[in-house]
Design brief:
CATH class of one domain in chain B: Alpha Beta
Distance between the termini of chain A: 62 Å
Low-confidence stretches of chain A: 1-36, 297-302, 336-340
Largest sheet of chain B: 8 strands, mixed
Number of helices of chain A: 40
Structural class of chain A: mainly alpha
Radius of gyration of chain B: 36 Å
Mean pLDDT of chain A: 86
Largest sheet of chain A: 4 strands, mixed
Mean pLDDT of chain B: 79
Low-confidence stretches of chain B: 368-403
Strand order of the largest sheet of chain A: 8-5-11-10
Oligomer: heterodimer
Chain lengths: 833, 481
C-alpha cells in the first residue's frame, strides 16, 4: 500500500484495515483446534514430526537448524524428484495437490537462483494432465499460472472441460496484474478457437481490443449464419469494424453483414421490442412527473412558461421517447398555421432551442432516414441556436450507426468553421457523437486546426477537444494528443480557470481510455509541465481514463489517497480523482462493492469538493443498476445542505435508475420535485433524473458493460464520463448554457433486450427463462446459471445482473451469451413430444 | 452514363441515370421530379460530402451502381411564432410573484410572529384589501386620529408590498406604527420585544381599521369592516329568580368558542359561547341576581371569525395559561342552528337552492318544488332587502351577469387559520395558514411560505404540542337566485 502524504486519513484507514484483518484471523485458529482432535494416526505422526522440526529450528545449533529447515520444505517434492516416476495419481488427490503447492514454491526459489526448472516442468506436465482429467481445471490453471507456463494448458484441454477452464481463466484475469491478465485471456482465446467456440473467442478478442483476433474469428469460421451473429456482437460493442473479403468472401453477403456491424438494424429491433411490450404510445413529461400523486402540491404550475422548466421538459421528453420515433411535443404533425412542433421549439429560450431541436435526434435515435427528414426543416432556420440543434440532432440520430454515405459528416462538415460559436459547437459535438470510436482521419484533419486556432473561442476549442477524444477513444493517437496538449499549453491563466476547460484534459484522457500505463506514460510526463491550475486535473483524468475498467487496485489506492487530502486552495483535481476511483473500480463486482464502501468513508472525511463528486462516482458505479444501499445513500445526499452535493445526488439517482422505471427512485424523485419546487436549479436536476429513470420507457440501459458484464464499450463509457465531468461544475455547464452535454449519454444508450431472430433475421418468439445470474466459476459439473427465474417469450427485457436461457430445445442459439440480437437455428435433433 | 440509386427517407429510387457531362444541378432536377423536393433544398450525400450544384462528377468519383443518400423535405420551414413567448424568468420580480400562486412571507422582527400571522390572515380577505385601497382616495376624515390613519395606511402599504414581492417582506414600518398606536405591544423583556397575544393584535388592528374605513360621507351602513366581519347577535337575558326577561342586540367581530371539558367540536364550543351567565342588578328584586343570557345570530357576516378561547389567566402562575384540549373544526361550517328564527327563515330558500345545485352536481334530480318556490322567492327577496348590507356589498363583479343576487346560506368555508404553538399566549410561536384563491393552502411561518395539504389543516385542532388553531376565519358560501 502506498502511504499517502496525509498521515491522518491514511493512518486512520490503515488502522481499520488491521482491525478487520484481526477478526477473521481468530476463526481459523479455532477451527484448527477442532481439527486436531480428528487427525488420523498417520497425520498425527506427521504433525509430531513437524513440531519436532519447529523445535529444532529454534535450536541454537545452526547445523541442526539447517537440517530441520530443509526437511520441512518440499518434502514430498524432494522424494518425488529423487524417487520413482510412476503414475502421479496413484498416491491420491491430496498428494498431487500438495505436490503442486510445493512445485510453485520451489519454482520461485529456482527463479531467484536462475536454476534449471526442467525436472519441475516434467512434473507439472503430469500434474496438469491429472487435474484436467479429474475435474480440477482450476487447480491445473493455478499451477500453470504459478509456473508461468499457461501454454501447456492447450495440450490438455478437451471438449469436456474447456468451458470450465476458460471460464476460470477469464474470471481470474480480472484479478491478475498486467500483463499477466492479457496472457491468460490470450490462452482462453486460443482454447475457444481450438474448440470452435467462436462467440466466446470473439468476446475475448473484443475485450483484448485485438482486431487481428477478431479477424481470425471470422476467417476461422465458415458458417455465414454464425458470422452474422458475430456481427451483432461487434455492433453491440459499438466499435467501428470494416469487414474485408478475407473475412467474408461473397460481396452481397459482406454488405449484409457490414449492415449488421453498422447497426442499421438496431432501430428496427428496438421497435420490435417496444411493440411487443406495448409501450409505443408516446409519453409527455407530465406522464413522467405524475404531479397528481403529490396531493395538490405544485400540481397546477405557474401559468407563464418557465424557460428552465420547459427545457427540463424538452430533455425529459427526449429521454423518455428516445428511439421511438414519436412523441407529443416535437414530432406531432404541425397544424396548418403555426405548427405545434414549432410551437414547442419556441417555448425554449435561446440556447434552449438548441437542445429542443437536438431532441428530435434523440426521439428518432438510430433511425437515420426518418431522423434526417424531421431535422431537415430546421437547417433552413435563420436562428443560430436552432441550426446548432439540428446539427447536433443529426449527430445524435447517427449515434452508433455507420453509413456508407456518411450523412453526418456530409451535413455537419460544412458547419465546423461557421462564424457563430453555437453553430460550430453543434456541428463539432454532433460529429463527436456520430463518429465516436471511428478514428476518422477526415474529421481529425478538420477538427485539429480548431484546437490550435488562436481566434477560436474557448468553448469551441473545448468541444473540439472533446469530440476528438471521443472519435479517437482508446486509440492512443499521437497526433490528436499533440494537438490537445498544444491547445492546453496555449490557454491563458484566466481560460484555465473556466469550467469548460476541463474538456481539454478529458479529451486527452479519452484517447487512452482503458489502455493502462505504457501508452499514457509519455502524455502523463508532458502534463507535468502544464500550468499548475490544470496540471493535477489533467494528471487525475489521464490516470483514471487509462485505468478505466481495469479494476487495478493500486490505482484505486492512489486515487483514494488523493481524495483524502485536505486542500486549502480551490484545487479542482479531486473531483476527477473521485470519478476516477469509480472508473477504475467499476469493472468487477468485488472491487465495485469495495469502492462503494470507500466512497461512503470519503463522504465522511472528505472536503466539500470531494463530497460533491462522490454521488456522481456512485452513479457511475451503479449506472442503470439501482442497488438499494446506493439508492439510500443518494436519497440522503439529495437533501444535503450543500446544494451542489444535492444536485449531483439527484442526477445520480437518475443515473442508477436510468432506463429501469424503478418505482422507488421514481417515488423519491417525485417527492424531491415537491420538496424543491421553489428552487429552479434543483428542480431542473430532479426533472432530468426523472427523465433518465424512465429513459426509453424503461427499455434502455446506460450500462457500458455488456456480454455478461465482461465487455466494456469504450464509446459508452466515454459518453458517461464526459457527462460526469460536466456535472463536476453543474452550475456553469448543465445549468448554464451547455445543457446539451446531457446528450452525450446517447453514446451509452442501448436497448436492454434479448431479441431472438430466425435464420432470415426475422424476429421469432421463443420461450426463455430470465433470472438472476449465478456465478458458476470454478464449480464442478453443470451448475444452474440462473436462479429465481421466470419464463417469458422473446423479446424480453434484461435487468442488471439478469441472464436468460432458452427454455426450449427446438432452437439452438448461435451465441451462448443471450443478450441483444440472438440468431436461432432450428435444432435438427429436436423431436416434438 | 452512370446509373445510381438514391435513398430518400425510407424510399429507394433505383436506376437513376447521371450524365457526367452535365452539372449535378440537372441530376437534382431529376430528383425533384421524383421526390417533389426543390433542388435548393436537396442535400445529396456522397461519401462524407454534399453534392454541390456546380461540382464536377469526375472529381466526386461516383461509381456506377453507387448508392446515394438524399436529405430534404418540401416541408414548411419553421418560423418563430409572431408573438414572442414570455418566459417567467424574464418577468420583473413583482410579476413572478403572481406566478408563484401565493404572496410572500413576512420577516420576523423579533417575536413578531403574532403580528405577521395576523397580517397574513387578514390579508387573505380581498374585500378588505380593496376597501383599504379605496381609503387612499378618501383620505383621513376628521374623526380618525392621526395614528389610526397612519396604521391604516401602513396596513395598505404592507398588503401591497406582500402582493408585489417574491421574497419575504420586512414589516418594519407597520410594526413601528402598530407599537405607536398600541404601546402595549412595546413591552420589553431582557431587552427584547415580548411575544404578544395574536388575538389582541387581531382585535385591535381590526378595530382601528373599522374606525378609519368608515366612510365619512354616508351612513353607518358603509362601515366596511363591520360589513365584512360584524356579527349581529340578539340576546335574551333572563332572570330565573324574578322571571324578568329582556332582549338586547349587539355587534361583535368574532364568535367565541368556549372550551370546557365537554366541548369536542367547534359547534359545541360556539353554542357554549353564546350562552352565558351574568350578574346584574335586578330592578324587580332590587339586588344583584343571576341572569342567563342566550344569544342567537341575527345577521351573518361575509367572513366569520371564530376565536378559540384557549387562554385563561392563571392566578397561581401569574400568566395566561393555555387549554390544550382538542377541538375539531370542519372545513365547511353550517351555523344554521345558531341563527335566530327570522334569520333561519331567510336562509331556508337559498339553502334549498344550494342543496339542489349540489344535488345536480352529484347527478341527482332536483325535487320539483314549483309550488313553494314562489313563496320562497318572495321570502328571499325580502331577506335580501333586510340583510341588505351583506348581499349588496358582497356582490362580486362577475355576479351581475348572473340573474338575481347572491344570498347567504349560513354555510361557511374555512379560509384561514391562525395557530399557536406553545404553552402560553405570551410565548411560543404563531403561524398563519391561508387558503389561496387557487385552492391551495399555504403556511406562512414568518418569512417561509410553504404549501400544505388540506387534510393537514384540520389537524391543527389541538390536543398536543403541535400548532393549534387559535383564530379561524370562514368565508360565507353564497348562492345566486
Amino acid at each position: 500500500m502506498a502511504p499517502g502524504p496525509d498521515p491522518n486519513s491514511v493512518g486512520d484507514g490503515a488502522k481499520r484495515d488491521e482491525a478487520t484483518i484481526k477478526v477473521p484471523s481468530k476463526d481459523p485458529k479455532k477451527k484448527d483446534d477442532k481439527k486436531e482432535e480428528d487427525l488420523s494416526e498417520e497425520d498425527l505422526q506427521l504433525k509430531q514430526n513437524l513440531e519436532l522440526y519447529v523445535e529444532r529450528v529454534q535450536d541454537p545449533n545452526p547445523e541442526l537448524q539447517k537440517a530441520a529447515l530443509e526437511s520441512m520444505s518440499f518434502e514430498s517434492l524432494g522424494y518425488r524428484l529423487t524417487g520413482s516416476e510412476g503414475d502421479i495419481g496413484s498416491w491420491g488427490h491430496e498428494y498431487v495437490r500438495n505436490l503442486a503447492g510445493e512445485i510453485a514454491e520451489e519454482y520461485t526459489v529456482r527463479q531467484g537462483e536462475e536454476a534449471s526448472i526442467e525436472d519441475l516442468m516434467d512434473l507439472v506436465q503430469q500434474i496438469v494432465a491429472f487435474h484436467m482429467k479429474h475435474n480440477a481445471e482450476t487447480e491445473a490453471v493455478d499451477l500453470l499460472m504459478d509456473v508461468e507456463d499457461l501454454d501447456l494448458l492447450l495440450e490438455h484441454v478437451d471438449r469436456t472441460n474447456f468451458r470450465r477452464t476458460c471460464n476460470y481463466l477469464t474470471s481470474a484475469a480480472k484479478y491478475l496484474p498486467g500483463p499477466d491478465d492479457m496472457l491468460v485471456l490470450d490462452i482462453a482465446y486460443m482454447i475457444y478457437i481450438k474448440f470452435e467456440e467462436y462467440p466466446n473467442a470473439l468476446q475475448i478478442a473484443l475485450f483484448l481490443d485485438n482486431m487481428q483476433y477478431v479477424k481470425q474469428v471470422f476467417t476461422s469460421c465458415t458458417d455465414l449464419l454464425r458470422k452474422k451473429q458475430f456481427c451483432y456482437m461487434i455492433s453491440r460493442h459499438g466499435i467501428t469494424f470494416e469487414l474485408d473479403p478475407e473475412m467474408v468472401e461473397n460481396d452481397v453477403d459482406r454488405e449484409m453483414l457490414q449492415d449488421i456491424v453498422n447497426n442499421t438494424k438496431l432501430s428496427e429491433g428496438y421497435l420490435t421490442l417496444a411493440r411487443d411490450i406495448e409501450v409505443m404510445e408516446a409519453k409527455t413529461p407530465e406522464d413522467i412527473y405524475k404531479a397528481h400523486l403529490l396531493d395538490g402540491r405544485a400540481s397546477s404550475g405557474p401559468s407563464a412558461d418557465s424557460a428552465r422548466q420547459n427545457l427540463a421538459a424538452t430533455f425529459v421528453n427526449a429521454f423518455v421517447n428516445a428511439g421511438f420515433g414519436q412523441d407529443k411535443l416535437m414530432t406531432v404533425p404541425s397544424d396548418s398555421t403555426s405548427g405545434s412542433a414549432g410551437n414547442w421549439l419556441f417555448k425554449n429560450k435561446e440556447h434552449g432551442k438548441t437542445s429542443a431541436a437536438a431532441s428530435l435526434g434523440m426521439i428518432l435515435l438510430w433511425d437515420v432516414d426518418a431522423g434526417l427528414t424531421h431535422l431537415d426543416k430546421y437547417f433552413h432556420s435563420n436562428d443560430n441556436p436552432i441550426i446548432a440543434g439540428a446539427l447536433l440532432g443529426v449527430g445524435i440520430v447517427n449515434c452508433g450507426i455507420k453509413n456508407d454515405c456518411d450523412p453526418a459528416l456530409a451535413l455537419l462538415g460544412e458547419y465546423i468553421d461557421k462564424e457563430d460559436s453555437s453553430v460550430r459547437i453543434g456541428a463539432i459535438m454532433g460529429l463527436g457523437i456520430a463518429y465516436a470510436g471511428s478514428q476518422n482521419d477526415q474529421i481529425r484533419s478538420s477538427l485539429s486546426p480548431i484546437l490550435n486556432d488562436a481566434k477560436a473561442p474557448l468553448d469551441v476549442i473545448a468541444f473540439a477537444a472533446l469530440s476528438l477524444g471521443m472519435i479517437y477513444v482508446g486509440s492512443c493517437n499521437e497526433e490528436v494528443a499533440q494537438s490537445i496538449i498544444f491547445a492546453l499549453m496555449d490557454r491563458s491563466e484566466a481560460e484555465l480557470g473556466e469550467a469548460l476547460t476541463r474538456f481539454l484534459p478529458l479529451g486527452l484522457g479519452l484517447l487512452y481510455l482503458g489502455k493502462q500505463q505504457e501508452s499514457v506514460e509519455a502524455t502523463a510526463e508532458v502534463s507535468k509541465t502544464f500550468n499548475e491550475k490544470i496540471r493535477k486535473y489533467c494528471d487525475m483524468t489521464l490516470l483514471s481514463c487509462a485505468y478505466a475498467g481495469t479494476g487495478n487496485v493500486l490505482k484505486v489506492q492512489d486515487l483514494l489517497a488523493q481524495c483524502g487530502e485536505h486542500l486549502e486552495k480551490g484545487d479542482i483535481h479531486q473531483g476527477p480523482a473521485v470519478l476516477g476511483l469509480a472508473m477504475v473500480a467499476m469493472s468487477e463486482e468485488l472491487g465495485l462493492d469495495m469502492a462503494i464502501r470507500s466512497l461512503e468513508r470519503v463522504l465522511q472525511y472528505g472536503e466539500q469538493n470531494v463530497r460533491r463528486a462522490v454521488p456522481l462516482a456512485l452513479g457511475l458505479l451503479c449506472i442503470s443498476n439501482p442497488k438499494v444501499t446506493v439508492m439510500d445513500t443518494l436519497s440522503r445526499l439529495s437533501h444535503d445542505t450543500d446544494s451542489e452535493v444535492a444536485m449531483s445526488a439527484i442526477v445520480s439517482l437518475g443515473l442508477i435508475g436510468a432506463g429501469t422505471n424503478n418505482a422507488r427512485i421514481a417515488g423519491m424523485l417525485r417527492n424531491l420535485s415537491s420538496y424543491y419546487y421553489k428552487d429552479a436549479s434543483l428542480l431542473f436536476c430532479v426533472r432530468i433524473a426523472q427523465g433518465l429513470v424512465h429513459m426509453g420507457k424503461g427499455l434502455l440501459t446506460l450500462s457500458p458493460f455488456h456480454s455478461e458484464r465482461l465487455l466494456l464499450s469504450p464509446t459508452a463509457l466515454a459518453g458517461i464520463v464526459t457527462l460526469l465531468h460536466a456535472c463536476l461544475d453543474m452550475k456553469s455547464i448543465i445549468l448554464g448554457k451547455y445543457h446539451y452535454v446531457l446528450y452525450f449519454l446517447v453514446l451509452a444508450m442501448q436497448p436492454r433486450m434479448m431479441l431472438t431472430v430466425d435464420e432470415n433475421l426475422k424476429p421469432i418468439s421463443v420461450p426463455v427463462r430470465v433470472g438472476q445470474a449465478v456465478d458458476v466459476v470454478g464449480q464442478a459439473g453443470r451448475p444452474k446459471t440462473i436462479t429465481g427465474f421466470q419464463t417469458h417469450s422473446t423479446p424480453v427485457l434484461l435487468a442488471a445482473g439478469e441472464r436468460a436461457e432458452l427454455a426450449t430445445d427446438k432452437y439452438i442459439p448461435l451465441s451462448p451469451i443471450l443478450e441483444g440480437f440472438i440468431i436461432l437455428k432450428e435444432n435438427p435433433d429436436y423431436r416434438e413430444e | 452514363m452512370l446509373t445510381v440509386s438514391v435513398k430518400w427517407q425510407k424510399k429507394v429510387f433505383e436506376g437513376i441515370e447521371i450524365d457526367p457531362t452535365l452539372p449535378p444541378y440537372v441530376f437534382k432536377a431529376q430528383l425533384y421530379d421524383l421526390t417533389g423536393v426543390p433542388p435548393e433544398r436537396q442535400k445529396i450525400m456522397v461519401k462524407g460530402g454534399l453534392l454541390k450544384d456546380d461540382a464536377d462528377w469526375s472529381a466526386i468519383g461516383v461509381k456506377d451502381g453507387q448508392k446515394l443518400m438524399m436529405m430534404g423535405t418540401a416541408d414548411e420551414i419553421v418560423k418563430a411564432p409572431e408573438k414572442a413567448i414570455v418566459f417567467a424568468e424574464d418577468l420583473p420580480e413583482e410579476e413572478q410573484a403572481t406566478h408563484l400562486g401565493y404572496s410572500a412571507g413576512l420577516v420576523n422582527l423579533g417575536n413578531t410572529c403574532y403580528m405577521n400571522s395576523t397580517v397574513q390572515c387578514l390579508k387573505s380577505v380581498p374585500e378588505l384589501k380593496s376597501a383599504l385601497s379605496n381609503y387612499a382616495l378618501t383620505g383621513r376624515s376628521a374623526d380618525v386620529d392621526q395614528t389610526s390613519h397612519m396604521l391604516t395606511v401602513a396596513t395598505r402599504e404592507l398588503f401591497g408590498d406582500l402582493d408585489r414581492s417574491v421574497n419575504a417582506v420586512s414589516p418594519t414600518q407597520f410594526w413601528m406604527i402598530l407599537r405607536k398606536k398600541f404601546p402595549q405591544f412595546s413591552q420589553l423583556q431582557n431587552g427584547m420585544h415580548m411575544q404578544q397575544d395574536a388575538e389582541e393584535c387581531w382585535t385591535q388592528l381590526l378595530y382601528t381599521l373599522s374606525q378609519s374605513l368608515k366612510a365619512p360621507t354616508s351612513s353607518e351602513d358603509s362601515d366596511a369592516v363591520k360589513a365584512l366581519f360584524g356579527v349581529n347577535l340578539r340576546s335574551r337575558v333572563h332572570c330565573q329568580e324574578s322571571g324578568e326577561e329582556s332582549s338586547e342586540t349587539e355587534s361583535v367581530y368574532s364568535l367565541k368558542c368556549h372550551i370546557s371539558h365537554e366541548v369536542n367540536h367547534l359547534h359545541e364550543g360556539l353554542k357554549h359561547g353564546l350562552k352565558g351567565e351574568l350578574e346584574k342588578t335586578s330592578p324587580a328584586l332590587g339586588r344583584t341576581a343571576l341572569y342567563l343570557k342566550e344569544s342567537l345570530i341575527d345577521s351573518l357576516p361575509r367572513y366569520l371569525t371564530v376565536q378559540f378561547v384557549r387562554f385563561f389567566w392563571k392566578r397561581e402562575t401569574n400568566q395566561k395559561a393555555k387549554i390544550l384540549r382538542k377541538v375539531d373544526y370542519p372545513l365547511e361550517l353550517d351555523i344554521f342552528d345558531l341563527c335566530s328564527e327570522e334569520l333561519r327563515k331567510k336562509l331556508e330558500a337559498p339553502r334549498q337552492k344550494l342543496r339542489d345545485e349540489e344535488g345536480k352536481k352529484l347527478g341527482l334530480q332536483p325535487k320539483s318544488t314549483s309550488k313553494d318556490s314562489d313563496v320562497k322567492m318572495t321570502d328571499a327577496e325580502a331577506s335580501s332587502k333586510e340583510s341588505g348590507e351583506s348581499s349588496t356589498v358582497t356582490q362580486p363583479e362577475g355576479g351581475s351577469s348572473e340573474k338575481g343576487t347572491l344570498h347567504m346560506t349560513g354555510i361557511y368555508d374555512l379560509v384561514s387559520v391562525l395557530t399557536h404553538k406553545g404553552r402560553s399566549a405570551d410565548s411560543g410561536h404563531y403561524v398563519a395558514w391561508v387558503k389561496q384563491e387557487s385552492g391551495k393552502w399555504i403556511q406562512y411561518d414568518d418569512s417561509h411560505p410553504s404549501l400544505q395539504r388540506e387534510e393537514d389543516i384540520t389537524k391543527l385542532s389541538g390536543g398536543g404540542d403541535w400548532h393549534m388553531a387559535y383564530i379561524i376565519m370562514y368565508k360565507a358560501r353564497f348562492v345566486s337566485m
